Amino acid sequence: MKIKNNVVDWIFTGLTAAVCLITGVLLLVRWDKIPTEVNTHFTMDGTPNGSSGKYMLIVLLGIAVGLFVIFLVAGHFPQAWNMPVKVTDGNRYIVYRLGKYMMDFEQLFITGLLCIFILLTAFQMTTPSWLWIVYIVGLVGGSMIFLILIAVIGAKNA
């Protein structure tokens, strides 16, 4: 079963594409001001403890775009997703629709935060320690909320 994109899907896709594009443009504009070596690894308190050449920012942007594409492609194959509830004819649409919303959220969240880390590095700013907490809570919490919704609503409609 294919889940057609709705307005929410297109908004998340557009926002994610915009975040990647803006990150790329800002890297190009700032490229000459970025030092040859940039901090690319940080401790939990934001202290840099590893560096790489500035080309690594382009590699990281490529990874962000690659993740965006993987989420886009995976969104077209809901039958391949592992769901926390048995998918039946009665609940198939709602389970796959909620799964698609979860993919939309994770696509924007993961790609967006990676782009934030790229820009913090490009602008030689320290990564605030609270950003790691937001990353972990959003990644785990966002997925858990959607998985619970899928399990409860999917079981009710089975």
Protein architecture, described:
With about 160 residues, the chain is mainly alpha-helical. It has one domain. It contains 4 helices and 2 strands. The radius of gyration is 18 Å and the shape is elongated. The two termini are about 15 Å apart. The model has no long low-confidence stretch (mean pLDDT about 90).
Characteristic terms for this protein:
158 residues; mainly alpha; two-stranded antiparallel sheet
Give the secondary structure arrangement, pairings included.
Elements: H1 7-30, E1 37-42, E2 48-53, H2 55-74, H3 92-122, H4 129-156
Antiparallel strand pairs: 1-2
Helix pairs in contact: 1-2, 1-3, 2-3, 3-4
What's the short version?
Strand 1 (37-42) and strand 2 form a beta hairpin. The relative contact order is 0.17. The chain is 65% helix and 8% strand.
